[in-house]
Amino acid sequence: MANRSAEKRERQNVKRRMHNRMIKSSVRTQIKKFDAAVQAKDKDAAKVAMDLSFKLLDSAASKGVLHKNTASRKKSRLYKAFAKLA
User: Fold this and answer.
1) pLDDT, tens digit, for every residue of 58-81?
2) Are the beta carbons of 70 and 35 closer than 8 angstroms?
3) Torsions phi, psi of 3, nearest 5?
4) How far is CA 66 from each of CA 3, 8, 35, 47, 59, rounded to the nearest angstrom?
5) Among candidates 56, 68, 62, which has minimal Cα distance to 24?
6) Radius of gyration of the chain from Cα atoms?
7) What is the pTM of this model?
């Protein structure tokens, strides 16, 4: 039988893992919405989706869910895709 501190640690890990998954999922969903707008060549919808994606990526990076360079790389790729629409 594990000791009490190990059991508590496991409870904390589960809670953190679920929180991180929720944040990552929302980021991925928003990026998919952006990609759909780009595919449809809808510049206005793409701009709105890109702005929200940037906000979510920055938030995830500041919380430590994503590394700051990962967030930066994703933002760069989103902006490149948006710039091709122009």
Assistant:
1) 999 999 999 999 999 999 999 999
2) no
3) -80, 170
4) 31, 25, 20, 23, 9
5) 56
6) 17
7) 0.89
